[in-house]
Predict the 3D structure of the following.
Amino acid sequence: MPVTRLDGMWRTSALGLAALALTACGGGQSTAPSASGSSPQHPQLKPVSQSPLRVSGTGFQPGEKVHVAVNGPETHAKDTRADSSGNFTTSLSKPSSCGSLTVTATGSHGSHAEFNLSEIACG
């Protein structure tokens, strides 16, 4: 940006000011989708319901095979596949005992997410 000093004062060109304003307002940061056509996301996993135990995953690779496992007093697992947007929802066997459960989702292309629920089957 051209800047000149004239009699103790700074003078900036109009084009330089526009570029500065655009950058200050976030215009220099791209929020456009990546070359693959989707915004990059980190895999996430969350509970949807407890009876039956349903979980939802987002941010996985499109079409990726995902192994979902519930680890706690009992272990249950199921394989599913992410859709073309990298999302999935699946049901798992409801644990028959109380306790802390860790639910993990591991994708065939390296995606991984997990969460922990305590006392999910109580009550």
